[in-house]
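User: Quick one: structure for sequence A, then sequence B.

Assistant: Sequence A:
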Amino acid sequence: MPGAPGRVLVVDDSQAIRQLIRVNLELDGFEVMTASDGAECLEAVHALRPDVITLDLAMPRLDGLGTVGRLRTDARTGHIPLVLVSASACWREPPHGVDAALAKPFDPGELVRLVRRLWSEGRSRAVRLVKPVAECRPGSRTLAP
């Protein structure tokens, strides 16, 4: 979208969630690209050059925390603000390396405000490497039939 305030890469294995996030961010003027899992995100991130990335936790091939770890250890992507959007509520605060976490189901307006804030602030705090969250188990899908 020409004149968009920023670019967001939405990473989720649910097409419905990707579409929900995409529509709401586009209505707020963001340019939105999508990926269906962490591996696809890593394949596309250098070409797409997003300003913010939203990530699901439980995804095939490469999950959200694995993706966070790889993004944070790459000098070209370590600065990009990351929002974890997941049905799993196993954290009291966002995991290391993640700028914000939002539980599914979420208020689309809240997600848009969060992405806009992270985009406008940029990543100002030091990048911390992701620590494994062994006790974390992926939650159930929110849009299961």
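Sequence B:
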Amino acid sequence: MSDAILKDAPGEGRLAHAPASHPPVARKRVGVVLANLGTPDATDYWSMRRYLNEFLSDQRVVDYARWKWQPLLQTIILTKRPFSSGKAYRSIWNTERDESPLLTITRAQTEKLAARLKALYGDAVEVDFCMRYGNPSTISVLEQMQARGCERIVFFPLYPQYGSPTTATANDQAFRALMTMKWQPAIRTVPAYFEHPSYLRALANSVEEAYRDLATRPSKLVASYHGVPERYLLEGDPYHCHCQKTTRLLRETLGFDEEEIDTAFQSKFGPEKWVGPATVEHVAELARQGHKHIAVISPAFASDCVETLEEIEEEIRESFLHAGGETFSYIPCLNDRDDHVHALVEVLENELAGWLSTSR
């Protein structure tokens, strides 16, 4: 960040040592890119098919041999699944903006984060967001960042717990973008932050606030995480361990007894054995055991999405009530809560150290 720039126009200038004929250059900044999972552009069959094809063709998500998986995906799964997935998305779609809730929320998170970082670093930082699947694409956002003068970029996958189908594939896509650039920006990736005290405090705050508004205190809080095949754990992916530790740290932050909170996993896909217990089955068993009032939180998601707004709020809720439960309370993801944004800022301050210094 040492080259002096004489300001010409907003965002542009001339290098102090360059001749007057030198074309304007973008002022040097550090970029921060939030990376979320992804979203279809619409809920119709072809939009869903394009999105699902990109998602399910990612070998971080489904790591079967391509010669086995692709014929099955293209001829059977992508013939049927766009209809059911489109129906699920339509039930939660933000019709006012004509976009998925995940896109709406990620934009709001980015805007709040940009304001907080601007207060700390001024115009030296540029903030944007991308999606691993769908739009805005990772490659397009990183190229835009570079064009705006970001020679250094902090790439922030919005996954508190590290997982190869989430954190790793987001980073993979960022590195693929670098492979296409003649002049690569320097890049840092943000590690898992599930142990960060401010993240845990924000999670605990969301539970405490939800419990205060309920007429009857839940006898069980279920922390539901997106599942992965058990094989991933055996092959060295730390995701399952990170989830278990998140639940324990959340329990300690809340001051709950061990029997007040459980860990479960949702969104099973395919014939393999997955880590468990499965949330949809676990909540039904809790109802049969006499737990009539439960709450569910989803600590693995930074933003509400189809897995929370449709799967938890509809399928998992129905499973609990059908088994005899009476009150099912879903506690929303942290989304753009101020305490969540504060936690993200604290994580980023650590990763920006050495590149930028705060104004405070």
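Residues 66-90 form the longest helix (25 residues). The first strand starts at residue 5 and ends at 9.

User: Thanks, that's what I needed.
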